[in-house]
Amino acid sequence: MKHNETRTVGLLSRIVNRIILIFYRLMGWKVVEPFPIDVKKCVIAGAPHTSNWDFVFFAGATHHEKVQPNFMGKHTLFQGMMRNFMLDMGGIGVDRRKSGGTIEQLKDEYDAREELNLVIACEGTRNSDGKWKSGFYNIAKAAGVPIVLAYADNDKRTIGFSSPIMPSGNYGEDLLQIAQWFRSKIPDLDRYKVLEQQAKDIIAGRNDI
């Protein structure tokens, strides 16, 4: 897997990534819709987020696809002995105290790199009812990069990615397109039904962004 930083990746992160990939394969997970090959920068919007194991299986899938996943973390996690490991694993330190906030810092990261695939669990928490936070969309729009959707079917142990979607600026309409893509994969999942209704409510002016 090609890393998106130029420095040498440490031994510990290589071992951890190898263990994740082995576990992913042993558990019988597989990618049924591959990551779009020509995309080098994007926001990967994943759902549903129901377990801490989601990260392991999804990381295994991205490594299988030879894609380096990136994630946000509090800037204090990128200090001292943990700094190199966090960077090697794809972490991006964000200091929420800085002017411009998280979105501006991430835009700068996208501008500075040739490759960046930021993974966001758009529901926020495992206990979500299925409604999404809009941060993923605002980041993609500010950075001028597409959104790639990712779903996990726990029953079939399959993971799939969408074609890239460029934010149009109309959040409600784009969210409805996103929700309908997810529902086409697992039609009866309640969280996807909630997401679709959220998008319709935004379009109708019954919900804020």
Helix content: 40-55%
Please report which band the strand proportion falls in: under 5%, 5-15%, 15-25%, 25-35%, 35-45% or over 45%: 15-25%
Main sheet strand line-up: 1-7-6-2-5
Structural class: alpha/beta
Query: How many angstroms separate the termini?
Result: 36 Å
The stretches of 5 or more residues where confidence is low (pLDDT under 50) are none
Helix and strand run: HEEHEHEHEHEEHH
Number of domains: 2
Largest β sheet strand count, sense and barrel closure: 5 strands, mixed
Count the beta strands: 7
Number of helices: 7
Shape: globular
Global mean pLDDT: 90
- Radius of gyration (CA) equals 17 Å
Defining traits:
alpha/beta; single chain; 209 residues; 5-stranded mixed sheet; 7 strands
Describe the structure.
- The chain has 209 residues and is of the alpha/beta class.
- The chain has 2 domains: 11-126 and 134-167, no CATH class; 170-209, no CATH class.
- It has helices spanning 11-26, 53-64, 83-88, 101-112, 135-143, 171-185, 190-203; strands at residues 30-33, 41-47, 71-74, 91-94, 116-121, 147-153, 158-161.
- The strands form 2 sheets. The chain has a 5-stranded mixed sheet with strand order 1-7-6-2-5, with helices on both faces. The chain has a two-stranded parallel ribbon with strand order 3-4.
- Strand 6 (147-153) and strand 7 form a beta hairpin.
- Helix 1 (11-26) crosses helix 2.
- The radius of gyration is 17 Å and the shape is globular.
- It starts with 10 loop residues before the first helix and ends in a 6-residue tail after the last helix.
